[in-house]
Design goal:
By secondary structure, the chain is an alpha+beta fold. 38% of the residues lie in helices and 17% in strands.
Length: 130
């Protein structure tokens, strides 16, 4: 039986909020509550909004998907269409039957390599963003 729309939205909202909470917890010394915000369901743009400071500390534009199946190119294209300037597009998803602690993330491989190079060099993205 298919999931009701209201249940799907609640599941997605809870997943986005868990991502927000985990980002804030990981960067507690650098970011405050208003720096990372879960958007309302159906709102355009990125699913987890970042302040200019948060974009420098955590340069990833997240498209969140609480879905039964692994996200495909359509979801990645959605993430790329909504990307903040000077960040990397990513689809964060929670595999069916798991909790938020088992979230997965999908990047374009070249973007992932660029992030690793920047981390090794101690470089953070600089820019105003959207």
């Amino acid at each position: 039986m298919p999931i009701k729309t209201s249940s799907a939205k609640a599941k997605g909202r809870k997943f986005q909020q868990s991502l927000r909470d985990r980002i804030l917890a990981k960067f507690a010394g650098e970011l405050e509550e208003g720096d990372v915000v879960s958007t309302s369901m159906g709102a355009g743009g990125v699913d987890v909004q970042l302040s200019p400071l948060a974009k420098r500390v955590f340069p990833v534009s997240i498209e969140a998907k609480a879905t039964r199946k692994h996200p495909a190119m359509a979801e990645m294209k959605q993430a790329q269409a909504n990307i903040y300037k000077n960040t990397t597009a990513a689809v964060c998803w929670s595999p069916h039957g798991t909790g938020p602690q088992d979230s997965m993330i999908t990047f374009n491989f070249d973007d992932f390599l660029d992030l690793v190079v920047e981390l090794q060099a101690g470089i953070y993205h600089k820019g105003e963003g959207k």
